[in-house]
Amino acid sequence: MEWPACTDEYEKLIIRMGTPRVAIDNAVCSTATLVKVDSARRHGILLDAVQVLTDLNLSIKKAYISSDGKWFMDVFHVTDQNGNKLTDESVLKYIEQSLGSVQNVRTNISNGVTVLELTGTDRVGLLSEVFAVLADLQCDVVEAKVWTHNGRIASLIYVKDCNSGSSIEDSQKINKIEVRLRNVLKGDNDIRSAKTSVSMAVMHTERRLHQMMFADRDYERTPILKFTSDNPSVTVQNWAERSYSVVNVQCKDRMKLLFDVVCNLTDMEYVVFHATINTNGDRAYLEFYIRHKDGTPISSEPERQRVIQCLKAAVERRASEGVRLELCTEDRQGLLAEVMRTFRENGLNVTRAEISTVGNTATNVFYVTDAIGNPADPRIIESVRQKIGLSNLEVKELPLIYQEEAEREDQAVGVGGAVLLSIGSLVRRNLYNLGLIKSCS
């Protein structure tokens, strides 16, 4: 490392002490790449490290976190999305450089986009109205993410002015956008809790969505019954002898699970001193030893219950409920408004969405259910695909319930078997039309 001529030895020492040391090892473990990070302990350092890894869509299979005085030591066992060790030298170098320079800064000046933040009560057709308003106001949606949980919705939408191709700087237009979107979010019965804001800063989208849901207190609202719910188990106990609160989370393993949990612990102002993360098959087991920033453990039963509620919500927000649809087509003004209108007119509710554009191509992912959160009728899905374009909109993932229905067809034997076989054939035919199973003929 080259130092400026004016840097004295004490300054160099401080910089070295504050710079994380990163080591990547592919030899120790046969199934995962080990990423080791040693750094001075500060609030949020664990989240920074986990964020770097999850932003690369890496899967964290195991992790060991420990603090010794003012020093922090992390070991992560990571794989790519296919479960393989990391071998691409450019990826390994990027990880090393990124982890070695993590800073406690998560906002940047925008690069020609305006950021819209929306929260309110979720309902069928809400996103259709939101994107119709943006199209009418000549706003080009560059990127967006939408989460729903317990009947609430949070969304970050990055837009440009259609005419100038850059961020929206006209204060009158910004005010008009806020007013119209707030009216859409209010609907008929959400006068107090609908919120809209406009910012010129770009932040880490998923962390901000967690913060928005947390501020909206989605964790306190009545849970919505889900047809594929895998309820996380969260326990919190105090270890009085060591002044720690011990948090255990058990749930189905998935991408970015550790990020979601650590993000919420950090934003609730808890410090993780030690942690162990293990996965076994499709299950994840996470244990954290935490304290408040002032060094004290959880002090009351209401606080303990609040931590349990918040962590359950953190795990559930990213749950992929419904049929996963992927739209890939040439981008054009009003595209999202048209797609969302088609969903609404066919009674489909979007439970989660990830919208992005690269060049002139729109690549969007939607998770859809019926109006009350049940599995969408495959025939409706097929009808929607025909209207939008079979080659443009594809089914990429089904809820487990569809697969179970298809499997039950093969078990239709004995008395009443003919009736069950008839029902099963209908399910199989619908799945075949969607391109989800192969023909047996």
Automatic annotation (TrEMBL):
One MF annotation (Gene Ontology) recorded for this entry: amino acid binding
InterPro entries: ACR1-12 (IPR040217), ACT-like_dom_sf (IPR045865), ACT_dom (IPR002912)
A Pfam family reported for this protein in Swiss-Prot or TrEMBL: ACT_ACR9_3rd
Signal peptide feature range: none
Coiled-coil regions, chain positions: none
UniProt cross-references to PROSITE patterns, sorted A to Z: ACT
Transmembrane segments: none
Source species, domain of life: Eukaryota
Entry keyword set: Repeat
Claim: GTP-binding is one of the keywords in the record: no
Every ACT domain range: 34-110, 115-199, 324-403
Function: Binds amino acids.
PANTHER family the record matches: ACT DOMAIN-CONTAINING PROTEIN ACR, ACT DOMAIN-CONTAINING PROTEIN ACR4-RELATED
Protein name as it appears in the record: ACT domain-containing protein ACR
